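_Backbone structure tokens_
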Amino acid sequence: MHSSFCPPQRTLMGPGPSDVSPRVLAAMARPTIGHLDPQFIHLMDEIKSLLQFAFCTRNQLTLPVSAPGSAGMECVFVNLLEPGDTVVVCRNGAFGGRMKENVERCGARAVMVDSPWGETIDIDAVEQALKDHPQANALAFVHAETSTGVRSDAQSLAALASRYGCLSIVDAVTSLGGIELRVDDWGIDAIYSGSQKCLSCAPGISPVSFSDRAVARIRNRKSRVQSWFLDMNLVMGYWGGGSKRSYHHTAPVNALYGLHESLLILHEEGLQSSWARHKNCYQALAAGVDALEINLLVDKSYRLPQLNAIEVPEGIDEAAVRARLLSDWNLEIGAGLGELTGKIWRVGLMGHSANQKNVRLFLSALGSVLAASGWERKVDISQSLAAAANVFNDAEINR
């Protein structure tokens, strides 16, 4: 006999989705109205304005794609690339690899600049690739590599793209709202993100933004965009602004209620405060993990505060630990991908999940599970919690 699905109450500290704010869940439960209703069109304009705030941009073509972050990625590539184009693609994790897939499916050539997983993108190697391939018309890179917890220097890479006459294409799925990101100031041409990471909205929406240079590229294409649904030439008519909108697709009305509420929460907190909160929670978590004598994979200078790659101690079954955290503590963390499978845990501190309570919960739960697993080292949970508390206390004193 089938019945309504009632999910368990979990704490989501994996690579996404993050915990959704109760305000967002409540917003999504409001009455559905038509996607061309004048009230909904007003909401669309507000969402555009709030996305411009979040991206730090005045780009007119800034909108939420009605699909998850992977569709946002595809949207950017299919609109900007044509068969025969050359794109320099930076790969230092799983999502740089997905960029390569998108480039090739557009009929373009991907020139790869590879860095080891867990390392940041090598700026000098990128510049050499641009010198070696003067025909390249785009540079693509991941700002916050979710598979490794690495932050790359988006500002320098975008400047490099501009210097060599390329459009910059940026994956900001995990960075938007969690770390500094300034689309206009850094000269980023095309960027995409996701609703389920640091925005703490339900999965299923992908904010994107295109500069005037990128829009000119879209309008002056020699061939039609290969995807009808993601063709910005068509979508512009629906999200372009004003009361008269051309029908393109039925927008996910209630999901956009949720996105609007999540962006409103970010606006109320302020970008600088949000970035600082994520950093503070990461520093406390890192101090607590260090007190357990466990290492973080990524060098401090380019770690992501919102996605922490924690090395699995020798002799520990990483999957068994994750399973125990879920079954005994209702706590979800992520496994490693690709080259890092079985070697790391990915612990997210994103949006609504980035708070002191979750840091303490994670440290207590991990310490307890490791102690119960027969780990040869002595597990001192109180010392780990004290280390985290010191970081939080220092932040309060210095505020």
